[in-house]
Amino acid sequence: MNTAQLMPHHVGVRFAHAAVQVIADSVGVDLLHIKGPAVHPSLLQTVTQADRAGVEHQLAEERRSMDADVLVRPTHLARLLEALHQHGWVLKVDFADGSAFEHAATFGHDVLAHLDVHRSFPGFSAGSEQVFLRLWQERRSLDIAGITCTVPDPTAQRLLLIINAVRDGVGGQPESDRLWQSATPEEQEALRLLAYDLRAQVALAAATGDLGAHVGASEYHLWRLLSTGQGTSVDLWLARVRAQPTARAAFREAVKLVVPNPRRLGVQIGRPLTRREMGAAWRKRLSQGVRGVRDLVRQRRKRGRG
Amino acid sequence: MSYLRPPYLAWVYDETAYFAPSSLYLMHVPDGVPLVLTGTAALIWLFAVEGEDVVEALTEVIADPPPDLAETTYAYLDDLVARGLLVREDPS
Question: Is cis: bond before B30, omega within 30 of 0?
């Protein structure tokens, strides 16, 4: 066995952060490290641990991450992807084949942990370039594995983590609650202002229990469903379509969500789909779509009568 | 003689395994191969990049230092420099 095989995963994650920063610097790419070892110590959960003498201490619990995550300036994305390729990183999951938000791609390496390259961040409805610029303006430096890496400021980090936890539904609620409730009133106000500036108010409200104030917002249903885990896959499909800013984007989203993505399904099951499985996926999507539209029409008729 | 960590040499000192010796992981990023130093080897590297007198620092932490500690330590430091894991700091 070689060192790479014996290396603890968290070391591989740190080295991945370090490697991508050096690569980015070499080609003039702006990026921000997020989550995992990039998180500001003030945002970490504290745990009580006794030392060997039995004395208890409050320690910040390190966030363990499966991957190294970076948010790249959208206009620098192509340059970064080319540079990653030159340094042996291999595309594992493309943007269109990961989450339904199509916000990140995953890259693998022979000896390092996977790298998630984010071109946008779900929950922020302002343009991805605008979001990045705002976070970049307030960036800080953080040493990860001995390499100086750029990270968002603590307010932005807290907002990103809260919204990321909301996407996990009920399972993410303890984390989003902790992050929100541990903030001072001034920090909470700063979060609200940043969310307003980057059009992330609805996503933030889903974490703070204020979603009711955004009932008319196009993203309201989407973040209600994501944060509660309620609703069917068709409900979520309709909510994603409704959340789109333009009719054209809504149409594209509708088509994308109806047509099965064989690569995404393959990622989910860990192998390419067989032809039979692909046919079954089509039939399931189409029947869900028909049932969903039928149910939606019935609901609207009931509301109309009431 | 003082030493520096080379630029682009990433490092992580892992103390997470409670009963295992702490390990120092090193890697020239972005394209190097990860290496691991354990025990005294790791301490020598850490003391060196922290600007300590390495032999003196080792003498303080090793329970029963061998008589040839200085000789073997300097030889190991030379080896670390030769492998690109340390850089000698130019006194000028």
Answer: yes
Residue B82 distance to chain A (closest CA, Å): 20
Question: Residue A205 is encoded by which pair of tokens?
Answer: 């409200």
Specify which residues B4 forms β-bridges with: B87
Q: Which candidate, A137, A120, A106, places its Cα nearest to that of A16?
A: A106
Are B25 and A3 an interchain contact pair (Cβ–Cβ within 8 Å)? Answer: yes
Q: In this structure, which amino acid lies at residue A220?
A: Y
B57/B4 Cα distance (integer angstroms): 17
The per-residue pLDDT for range B4-18, each reduced to its tens digit, is: 999 999 999 987 655
Output the CA–CA distances (angstroms, integers) from residue A79 to A82, A102, A145, in the order listed: 5, 19, 24
pLDDT in tens, A50-108: 767 777 776 667 767 899 999 999 999 999 999 999 999 999 999 988 888 889 999 99
Å between B31 CA and nearest CA of chain A:
7
**Distance separating the N- and C-terminal Cα atoms of chain B:** 12
A245 vs B80: which has the higher pLDDT: B80
Chain-chain contact of B34 with A145 (C-beta, under 8 angstroms): no
Alpha-carbon span A202 to A166, nearest angstrom: 11
Its ipTM equals 0.93
Q: Which residue of chain A is at minimal alpha-carbon distance from B11?
A: A145
Whole-prediction pTM value? Answer: 0.86
Residue B33 and residue A20: Cβ atoms within 8 Å?
A: no
| Cross-chain residue pair A15–B34, CB shorter than 8 Å | yes
Per-residue burial over B50-64, b if 16 or more Cβ lie within 10 Å, else e, is: eebebbebbeeeeee
